[in-house]
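Dissemination and training. As part of the outreach component of the grant, students in the summer workshop were shown how a complex can be specified as a set of sequence lines and then modelled as a single object. The example used during the hands-on session is reproduced here so that future cohorts can follow it. Participants entered these lines:
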Amino acid sequence: MTPFRMTQQAYLILLTLVDERQHGYGVIKQVAELSGGDVTLAAGTLYGNLDRLLAAGMVAADGEEIVDGRLRRYYRATDLGAQAAQAETENLARLAARAQRLLDRPRGLGRPVLGGA
Amino acid sequence: MTTAERTARLWLRAYPRRWRYAYGEDLVGTLLDLAGPDARTVRVRDGVSVVRAGWSLRWREHPPLLPWLGYRLFEMRLPARYRYWVMDDLLDRFYTARTAAAAFVTVAVVFTGISAVVPSLESVLIPVSWDAPMMFALAVALLAALQPRVGPRRVWRRQISTWLPRELRPRSERWKADVELAQYRAALRVDGEAGSAGGGAGV
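and obtained this result:
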């Protein structure tokens, strides 16, 4: 089986589900909050990623409730999913550290200065 | 069903039936939550994303080309992991029409390939007028209208099980399938109560 491809969206979804069990709408709201408003998932994008995470054993279904007459399924991250989120977080931290070292290096003459945000 | 719910279910048809039965309600709920109260339709962005996700899933679940051709044209068995895919395929009303269309397309592709390699055969293999392709198209349309169950019934018996679900039985015998299924479920419940840990989730 091909190894799981951890995209940014999958990573964010996994993070919200490690924290607590959530249903679909809750995950979308929390991902938006976690990413500071940068990532607003569409419904299909969420479920596409959930399918992959479920198949990889990183997320599990965790009960169903009837809310407002509609069935809501809850999801949570498994231990494997929590480990994967931790590993990815460490990867990103290492990348950020390397990136910062690169940016802190004295820049040569004539090279354009990186613009501020 | 509100209008918004109707549009949500329409978008969901991008997903295969089995997925809809298992996870569909949840997605419909999420779509309606995202649309907000008093919405008349689901947001287009969400609908398009659902179509994309549904077709990605169909693509992932689809058998690879050569085994699929063997199954579609010659009723060869697919590997066990495609069993549910085969069941969904056989239960679809347009199985016979799709099989006929696949056969015609394959023959057309093969003939075109051969006449490209051996030009002298082109006059034999490639029809001059549109009569033959039109007849094939009509045959496929006829099969799509008639929806015969003989073919899927045979393949189901050989590849899936000797027990036929109601969709594949003659209309007058469909009630038997319902009775047998109810008896099977009742037997499972009895066994579950008699045994220690109850059986798995219902069928």
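Residues 58 and 81 of chain A are 4 Å apart (CA to CA). Students were then asked to discuss how this feature might be tested experimentally.
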